[in-house]
Every structure is written in structure tokens, then in C-alpha cells.
Amino acid sequence: MAEETSKEPTEKQTSDKDGGRVSRRGFFSWAAVGWVGFTAAIGGCVSTFGRFMFPNVLYEPPTNFKVGRPEDFGDGVVDERFKESNGVWIVNSGGTLYALIAICTHLGCPPNWLEAQNKFKCPCHGSGYYKNGINFEGPTPRPLERAKIYVDPDDGQIVVDKAQRYQWELGQWEDSDSFIEVV
Amino acid sequence: MGFLKDIQNNIVKSQVWKSIFRVGIPTDNRKRSLAMLGNVVLHLHPIKVKKSGLRMSYTWCMGGTAFFLFLVETITGLLLMFYYRPTVEYAYFDMIDLREVAAFGIMRELHRWGAHAMVIAVWLHMFRVFMTGSYKPPREFNWNVGVILLVLTLLLSFTGYLLPWDQLAIWAITVGSNMARATPLLGQEGPGSALLTLGGTKLIHVGSDARFGLIAGRTIGGGTLIRFYVLHCVAIPFVAAFLIAVHFWRVRKDGGISGPV
Q: For B194-234, what is each residue's pLDDT tens digit?
């Protein structure tokens, strides 16, 4: 085809009969379709990979567990029987039972209960807490957190659920799920 | 002497030789350049190096040292991988066995010392580049690539630190990963996380925030160990290798090491 017209053809020419001649408009339509499809495919892949990285099943110990009956906890006692296994102290303070989560609120080490000095003390950076969990020394900015604690109505046992946390500085220790009143 | 020349001739004119080395031994500068450029292994090194590039009082050779240590880490790391199993049952004991039982028990220490040395070399390199003004145009982009490489080096150190699975490892990573809780928007305790809700359900909580995705769980455990192992041995080295290639490419394109622009 020696004669080339300078005006745009009125319709798309994509046949290979005449040597594969494609108009500019036709080319950009196909190119746009191609790029949009490619971008959508890449976006789909990235979202899929992102979702893949969040596990659906965790092989961790269950967050709620039973710790016995209200009578098992003497007044003024910090019970350490569940610290190693479940990461909580059960404290009975004047008839109010609560579960303190044994993770220092500074950077995450497990503190120790020092009976003789009547305080929780973190070995990592020296954060100190009173028996009620309020911080008073060291770098920690806030008190220990409480776990949800309630009595199972079926068998009268105390259930602790670490998945629910209560922070003093947010006023959440007023919540009735964060303590049990023992008569 | 003629005898050796005959042998050389026979070798160089053989089909085996000619199939591997496509061109003959270069006889002039143009052919020398072409031989380097046309060879996948040889083209990794510049054809010519300026004498000023060898001035160690100016360059400190820290970039080269960092790259050398990267190679050392890759090779020692690869060797360690033949015995180390990244599970909670085996990780610590395999690390002890590598030290006590495997041949050349020093290999684990070489890997560890190499890691310390590489971090130091990378910092010194950055310091040197700053002091000699080698970040100024047209080298600004390469400076940024270098900063990303610095972050990748530190991430390699962070992920590798967990792998011995001893007290030091577990608690260091616990503390380090707790910082991810405070990520804006994506961290459970960070600012703005409560904004991402869908009809009353919080999308970002302890089982779905950035920290959860990093350590694959609510606490450091087996999921974290394998995740950090893959990041440490495959994902981050791939990205780092690619960026190192870009980094070297830009050095040459921008005028060669310690050369004028």
C-alpha cells in the first residue's frame, strides 16, 4: 500500500489480511485492556500473598482456663500456681479476686513476685508494681493488666480468660468482669 | 618451549574450548573490552579501575568489606543450613550440635562474628560516604539505595538473632516485636487502630495486627521461628542481592568509585 492516508481511519483495523495494520485508537484500546488486566492480576496476587501471611490456626495454649474455686484463694495471698503454666497471678485482696497478667508493661518480660518485699519486680529493667498491680518504680509507664475473671455458673469454678484484658489507666478496672467479689 | 606452545595451540583450537570461550585471547584494548563485556562472569567487574579508587585512606574500602562479608555470611549460612532445623524441638540443640559435634564447629561463630562485622562495616561505609560528600548529585539515588540496604542488614541481624532459640533470642525478639504493636493504624495499641472497623467489629486486634503478621501468633513461638528463618535465609537476602546489584551499577554509572562526576 504505497498511498498512506493522513486522516485517522474511521473504524478499527486489526486484520492480518492487509499486513496487521492497527489504528492508533485500536492499539491504545488493546494496550489499555492489557495493562488494566495486568495491574488487576498483580493487585490480586499481592492481596493474596498478604492474606496468606496471617495464620488461621495458632498452636498456642488456650487463653481461658479454670483455676479452682473462690475458697482456694486466701485473703491477701498472691497465688503463683498459674504463673509458669498460664502467665497469671491470682490475687485475693480483701475479698476481691483478680487475675494479673504476668507480663511487664514496659517491654514484655515476666516479672517476679517478691513475697518478702511485697512487690512484683521485673528482672529485665527493674520495673516495680504493688500487690494490686499499680506501678511505682522503674521504667514502666503503666500498671500490670488484668485478665477477665468470672465464675462458671455450671460448676462454680473460677475461669480466667487472658484474651480479654483490662487496663487501669483506661479506667477498665471498674468493669465487673475484671474482678470477683468473694464473700 | 615450542612443545608447550603446540599443546596450547591444540587446546585453544579445540571444539570444546571454542564452545566455551567464544572469542580468542584479546590482542588489543578494544578486544579486551569486548571480552569483558561479552562474558557474564567477567562483566561483573569493571574493565578498568581508576587508581584513585584504590586509595584506602579515602575510601576505607568499607563498601567492599561489607560486600565481602555479605558473601561470607551467605556461604557460612548456607553451610549451617545443612544441619539446623528451625523447629522449637530442634533449633537450640542443633545450634549446640553445630558447635560441639559437627566438623569445624567454628562455623557458627564465623557466621555470628561476620554478622557483627558486617553491621560495623556498613555503618563505617555510610559514614565514609557522608564524609567524602559522595551522596551529592548525581549520587543521591544511590545514597537512598544504600539506606535501604542498611535497614535490610539490620533486619537480617534481627531475624537471625531469634534462630538459636535461647533465652537471649526469645526475649530480645519479644521486646523488639512488641514495638510493632504501636504501629499507627495497623498496630493494636497504635494510634488510629480503632478507626479500622467494619460494622462494629475491630479489624485490628491482637490476633490480626501488624505484630501478629510479623510473629505469626500472639506470642513468640514455632510460627515465629519458621517465619524468621525464611525471612533470614531467603526473602531478605534476595531483596538485598538485587539492591546490591543496583547499588554497584549506580556507582559505575555515576563516575566510578571515588571518581569525579
A: 788 887 777 888 888 889 999 998 889 999 999 999 999 99
pLDDT at position B260 is: 66
Angle at A70 between CA A64 and CA A73, to 5 degrees: 100
Q: Å from B234 to nearest chain A CA?
A: 16
**Could you tell me the CA-to-CA distances from B178 to A115, A118, A122, B173 in Å, in that order?**
29, 28, 16, 8
Interface test with A, best of B170, B175, B214 (most A CBs within 10 A): B175
Q: How far is A152 from chain B (nearest CA, A)?
A: 25
Could you give the 3-state DSSP secondary structure of residue A65? strand
pLDDT band (50, 70, 90) for residue A1? very low
Burial B217-228 (b: 16+ CB within 10 A, else e): bbbbbbbbbebb
Q: Which pLDDT score is estimated for A26?
A: 81
Closest CA to B240 of B71, B125, B49: B71
Chain B contact present for A3, CB below 8 A:
no
Domain with B125, as residue range(s), is 61-253
Residues in contact with B47: Cβ distance below 8 Å, sequence separation at least 6, in sequence order: B32, B33, B36, B37
ipTM, two decimals, is: 0.74
A58 touches chain B (CB under 8 A): yes
CATH number at residue B242: 1.20.810.10
Give the closest-approach CA distance of A36 to chain B in angstroms: 27
Total number of domains constituting chain B: 1
Q: Is residue B43 part of a domain?
A: no
Give the nearest chain A residue to B176 (CA atoms).
A107
Report residue B175 as a C-alpha cell: 521486646
Whether A54 sits inside 8 A of B213 (CB atoms) is: yes
pLDDT value for B110: 96
Work out how many CB contacts closer than 8 A connect A with B.
32
Q: Tell me which architecture the domain covering A64-181 has in CATH.
A: 3-layer Sandwich (2.102)
Of B175, B208, B221, the CB nearest to A60: B221
Alpha helices per DSSP H over A70-132? 83-86
Q: Show the cell assigned to B157.
A: 541481624
Q: With the CA atoms of B102, B224, B117 and B44 taken in that order, what torsion angle do they form, in degrees rounded to the nearest 10?
A: 90
Residues of chain B in contact with residue A54, where contact means CB-CB under 8 angstroms, are: 208, 212-213
**Phi, psi torsion values for B189, nearest 5 degrees:** -105, 10
